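Bug #77: duplicate submission created two jobs. Keeping one. Sequence:
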Amino acid sequence: MEKIQLEAQKRDGTGKGVARALRREKRIPAVIYGDGKEPVLIALESKEVFKALHSGGFFTQVCDIDIGGTKHLVLARDVQLHPVNDQPMHADFMRVTEKTKIWANVPVQFINEDKSPGLERGGLLNTIMHEIELYCQATKIPEAVIIDLEGLDIGDSVPFSAVQIPDGVEAALEDDTTVASVTAPAAVRSAGKDEDGEEIEGEEGAEGAEGETAEGDGESESGEDAENKS
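Kept job's structure:
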């Protein structure tokens, strides 16, 4: 996995006044912390942070931040965004090494959708978990958790036990936790059919019971009519 490259300058002072001054210069305040060292206050180009943030993997890829020729190996842990325009306003970076292990939210990625009989028949992919939290080396965070949909039919689900994760990576999920499933289209469900498109037996039974009741009522009414006539 390639590292994200950013250039920064040390900054002096904290507070709203300093932050506003930096933003007027199209820069944002940020901090590097961790690894038992003193925090380093820095300023980053806003457009570079925005670009990296929207390129994907910003929170799972390690980053080299160059401060005056000295590089710091870090991992982005938080970015505060403007509530209206979603521009970055502040960023937190944690120092990491080859030995650092952390929890990270890794996105789920599906493959072989065209090899799923259920999806080919018009079924819908119900993504229950868009991310899975993994415990792994900070420098070896997977780009995505791959889930293979080959062979899945309508009504099938993907438990976490069927998900392949790299060696040395842990997850705080039970094996029977459902990650995704293939469901019937809403039109089929509303028509009183199960996920395979078959009529729901319970509804047939209900219709049959109604029919029997109607017939019984008819016989009762006929008996009353006959009694009245006599």
